[in-house]
Amino acid sequence: VTRLARSIVLTIGDELLLGRTTDSNSAWLADRLAAIGAPVARMETLGDVADQIAGAVRRAQAEASLVVTTGGLGPTADDRTLEAVRMAVGGREVDIEIPNPRGVEPARWYEPSDDAGALLVLPGPPREMTALFEAAVGRIRTSLADGLRSVSARTIATTGIPESRLAPDIQPLVDGIDGVEVAFLPDLHGVDLRLTVRDRTEAEASRLLDAAESAIADTVRPFRVSAPSGDVVEALTDALEARGWTLAVAESCTGGGIGERVTARAGASRSFLGGVVAYSNGAKLSLLGVPGLVLEEHGAVSEPVASAMADGAVRAFGSDCGIGITGIAGPEGGSPEKPVGTVCFAASTPAGGVVTTHRFRGDREAVRRRSAQAALVQLLRLIEEGG
Amino acid sequence: VTRLARSIVLTIGDELLLGRTTDSNSAWLADRLAAIGAPVARMETLGDVADQIAGAVRRAQAEASLVVTTGGLGPTADDRTLEAVRMAVGGREVDIEIPNPRGVEPARWYEPSDDAGALLVLPGPPREMTALFEAAVGRIRTSLADGLRSVSARTIATTGIPESRLAPDIQPLVDGIDGVEVAFLPDLHGVDLRLTVRDRTEAEASRLLDAAESAIADTVRPFRVSAPSGDVVEALTDALEARGWTLAVAESCTGGGIGERVTARAGASRSFLGGVVAYSNGAKLSLLGVPGLVLEEHGAVSEPVASAMADGAVRAFGSDCGIGITGIAGPEGGSPEKPVGTVCFAASTPAGGVVTTHRFRGDREAVRRRSAQAALVQLLRLIEEGG
């Protein structure tokens, strides 16, 4: 009988034991390992002490079919993982090194043996760790082969509705489909629904996931992000490119965050012309042509100013579509009528426009991120609805 | 002889092993335990499996003077911590229960014995966990008494130099001061040096940290971030405000990322007027007044264009200082003379200006983040040097 695969994650670094750094690697790895069918049985966080690391690696290899370590690989004297791994494997040679596309230290892979699980040694910086883990997935699948559990999952990205409102409607619908679980994964851009089916054939899993997706389709439709990646920016740039339209943005409270997100995607220049960050009233007047009277009468954070900013961006860049956003990110600057978190945003296309006001909860960063997301979603919905 | 206190943190919950929840309790506890002198030796994350939890508690109590568990105390069937603790302590009665001001489950405290460390059992929800830990601190101090260590640390932020170049110069200087350790903590904005002294009186620790800081002062000076927080944006806005200067930026490859970072700080509007994201050549011409001939002759990614963009930002916003940045973030768009990662950035103040070209490694995100950081640092240095 093949033993079902299970993993142990070891996270290494004195800074973690001092509480100076929150460990995001463990949760990321746990999620990915569950997804490829080698769920995590336990995780351990260790300091940069070679003896201690070596002991933990040996014990983990005796317990689990796969051990993944992160951290402690840097060039400095306080990085002890390689020394510890050499002690743990008793001088065995590394079976393969996977080059690091985002840094210096490669990943190291040791094949499993009769009495020890496979060992994958990864660097600690999350960008490097994630890229190298993905590069190692093929190797993990080959080596653990039949031991891997079958896990099929499908993610449906939503935006514009909190978990607390989404879950009570969705949960009973999914509970009605035997064998499907749903998890709600919220972040500042929205809530991802993850549907999971375990230990079924691929065809059966696919049938169950289809059934669950159908069951919740009507409920999620108003909030669903249409891009396959679940990324609103991808959905928006696809929608713009399909119509041959270009975009310019006028930002105040987000300070450049919308432009930053749009241009994070390679090829953004095909539809994105640019933006104005009009942090001062003077810039709203001179660069975006927001009328002084409108600013005076309604205040900088108002729907008329947001609309005038969107129009100003379209004019300044000669674009087809525009976004205007102005708000109070806090912690200062709120008033009884316009408390911190009040944000006005306007979207315009050649076919029409829309302007709304939201009141966001949370700190400055949360308000700014949610605002940028809401502005992008508003333009996307306007385009999708033919506006 | 009193054994010096060390702690082990056990975090319990299936959701953590599935990567559904990022564990913030461990880092919080690690920080607090280090601060009260019972630093964490290792941390472990376990599922809701009574046998496994009991084994981990027993092992941890044998190793450490204090064991803290969080999670698995709820009312549902999958919460197994209490059952596991009863197995681990072999029927011993709890010594004290501390009532929960923010929830139902109290904290449970078991005094240390000759062969087992103290045990503190806390619920998992962070608001409840933190309140109950604070309520237990007096008990921890009394029980561990003389074993508690003193730990003092100081962080020095640097930017513009990689860990691999910084560490070989810094390490031997710190090694020369007995009792001081140094750790190097890199991210995309720079490398933090953390100096740590353990098991000394406060006065002695302070003297040693001063000595270490003096020893490395000359070496880190060119790269040191002057702001107390180590944040370049804070240092730059402080420098601008001290001189009564304002700032405007002209961004291309960073797409708004510089504006976004500057405005992430509350109160940015005191010195930041705004920016232009000139993603297209048309925008560079019309909004920033970059001469068409300069664009044609040198190309969009060139020092003359970066300088003209900085000047254009100063003109457009009427600011005292300007930043211009243009580059190739990739993955497309590189050429043999100007490969991906080539970025030109200009800074100007009323007293002068500077323009440089860097070639950054890494993917699109890394190039963009490092570019934004380098542009901010360049202006800060120019101001600090009186330029």
Describe this structure in a few short sentences.
The structure is a homodimer of 387-residue chains. Chain A is an alpha/beta fold.
Distance between the termini of chain A: 60 Å
Main beta-sheet strand count, sense and barrel state of chain A:
6 strands, mixed
Residue runs with pLDDT of under 50 for 5 or more positions of chain A: none
Query: How does the overall form of chain A come out from the CA principal axes?
Result: elongated
**Which structural category do the helix and sheet elements of chain A fall into?**
alpha/beta
Number of helical segments with 4 or more residues of chain A: 13
Q: Determine the fraction of residues in helical runs of chain A and give it as a percent range.
A: 40-55%
Overall mean confidence score, pLDDT of chain A: 92
- Count of strand segments of chain A: 14
Could you tell me the strand content of chain A as a percent range?
15-25%
The H-and-E topology of chain A, N to C, reads as: EHHEHEHEEEHEHEEHHEHEHHHEEEH
Oligomer: homodimer
Identify the biggest protein-protein contact and residues per side: A-B, 83 and 86 residues
Radius of gyration of chain A using CA atoms only: 25 Å
- Biggest sheet strand order of chain A reads 2-1-3-6-5-4
Could you please describe the fold and organization of this structure?
Two copies of one chain form a homodimer. Chain A is of the alpha/beta class and 387 residues long. In chain A, 41% of the residues lie in helices and 23% in strands. Chain A is built from 13 helices and 14 strands. In chain A, the strands form three sheets. Chain A has a six-stranded mixed beta sheet with strand order 2-1-3-6-5-4, with helices on both faces. A five-stranded mixed beta sheet of chain A has the order 11-10-12-13-14. In chain A, strand 8 (181-187) and strand 9 form a beta hairpin. The termini of chain A are far apart. The mean pLDDT of chain A is 92. At the A-B interface, helix 1, helix 2, strand 2, helix 9 and strand 11 of A face helix 2, strand 2, helix 6, strand 8 and helix 9 of B. Strand 2 of chain A pairs antiparallel with strand 2 of chain B.
